[in-house]
Every structure is written in C-alpha cells, then in structure tokens.
Amino acid sequence: MSDEEHQFESKADAGASKTFPQQAGTIRKNGYIVIKNRACKVVEVSTSKTGKHGHAKCHFVAIDIFNGKKLEDIVPSSHNCDVPHVNRTDYQLIDISEDGFVSLLTESGGTKDDLKLPTDDTLLTQIKDGFAEGKDLVVTVMSAMGEEQICALKDIGPK
Basic and acidic residues compositional bias: what residue ranges (predicted)? Predict the structure, then answer.
C-alpha cells in the first residue's frame, strides 16, 4: 500500500439528483416527466398495444412547467424515463426591484433575491398590483432541475 494521502474534491451537491428513473408504463396523467431535458407535467398518456416487433409504447403529451410549451415523446413502456424532482415552496414577498427581480422572505428569516418576476402576464399584473396596494403576498415557487419560477400567488391580507 502507498503512504500517500489522497485529496478528493467533490463538486456534487448532497447526493440529490435532479431526476430519478421511473418505468414509462407507470407514469400517469398529472405526473412529471423529462422531455428534451425540460421538466414537464404530463397532460395526456396513451399506450399502444405490443406489435409484431417489440414493446408496447407510451405516447406522452406534456407541458413544460416553466415556459408552457407543449412537448411529446414516445417511449417503450418497459423502459425507464427520467422524472424530475419538483418542489413547491411558499415565500413572503418583501420587495420588487426595478430590474424585475423579487426579494422573498425564507422560512429561516433570510432573503432570497435571485428570482425574477414570472413571465405569465396575469400572474405578473396580480403580483405588481397587489404589491402596489400594500397587500401581504405569498408567492409559490416551483423548482425542478436547477430552474425556479414563481407559479402562484396568495393574498394573506393587508399589511
């Protein structure tokens, strides 16, 4: 054995992968799936019968959870698909900066300042109008595969 000491530099996070494998035949409507490296919510699943050559196939129609684009994929039902880890977290809105970034209050009492306002026009106007009126607003942030976006808004009353 050698007497050398080895230093390993790990650049990985806490072992949490951005996705996990799941058999295509077990993914249902309203579940999540990765299509073309995008986290998507499944809106339609149809399964074809086994043919003369090969497996039954699942046809997925899904909507990208961040940009709303429709994506489709066909996968043999016995094969594995990537399913994203999707998290929803609520934060209280503190401030909106001129450049479109929001300042949010975390549960630990810190602030989160790296999120932009949503691109969805109705949600954007609801947030801006509510903030201008001085209401206490709680935004729901959806995160998956290293992306985050505000996806919902709750009004918890006037300040």
Answer: 1-12
- Within 8 A by CB and 6+ apart from 75, the residues are 24, 57, 58, 60, 81
Q: Residue 97 belongs to what domain range?
A: 86-155
Q: Tell me how far apart the 2 most distant CA atoms of the chain are, in Å.
A: 71
124: in domain? yes
Q: How many whole angstroms separate alpha carbon 157 and alpha carbon 138?
A: 10
Cβ-contact 55, 76 below 8 angstroms: yes
Q: What is the pLDDT of residues 57-116, one digit of tens each?
A: 999 999 999 889 999 999 998 899 999 999 999 999 999 888 888 999 988 888 988 898
Task: Please state the pTM of the whole predicted model.
Answer: 0.78
The closest of 35, 39, 38 to 24, measured between CA atoms, is 35
